[in-house]
Write a structure and sequence with these properties.
151 residues; mainly alpha; Multidrug-efflux Transporter Regulator, Chain: A, Domain 2; three-stranded antiparallel sheet; 7 helices; 69% helix
């Protein structure tokens, strides 16, 4: 079965203009054209496009994605390069996740802080609240925050 640019765009939730741009940049060597020049995508294009979108979300520039696509088209001789590229991007995502988890911890702490302040009617509650009444994860985050401000 073949799909048009519009159909694929709808399936993936990305603008059709993005697909046209990818094609213009050489990221879609697997796309066929009809007799009238209309781009035609096979089912297998969905996986390709999902990988391209994934690499884009990691922050990889189009030039890097193009290199990956080229290596894929070259075949088995480039498996090692592709693996190295994927590992680099995975490491980048893990680093981003760690930073986001730190951010989430702070937001969770502040949520707890204001939730307890609201219930008590004052932020002053935190000056007298015994550590034994603070949830362990919140206490851990609180200590991290206090130690980072003391540096």
């Amino acid at each position: 079965m073949f799909y048009t640019v519009g159909e694929i765009a709808k399936k993936l939730g990305i603008p059709a203009s993005t697909l046209r741009y990818y094609d213009k940049e050489g990221l879609l060597p697997f796309v066929e054209r009809s007799g009238s020049g209309i781009r035609m995508f096979k089912d297998s294009a969905l996986e390709w496009l999902s990988v391209i979108e994934c690499l884009k979300k990691t922050g990889m520039p189009i030039k890097g994605i193009k290199k990956f696509v080229d290596w894929c088209m070259e075949g088995d001789a480039t498996i090692a390069q592709r693996l190295e590229l994927i590992d680099r991007q995975r490491d980048e995502v893990l680093s981003q996740l760690a930073k986001l988890n730190e951010t989430l911890d702070i937001l969770n702490y502040k949520h707890w802080y204001y939730e307890t302040a609201k219930a008590a009617g004052t932020c002053g509650i935190h000056n007298t609240l015994p550590e034994s009444e603070i949830p362990p994860k919140i206490l851990e985050i609180r200590k991290k925050l206090k130690s980072s401000t003391e540096k």
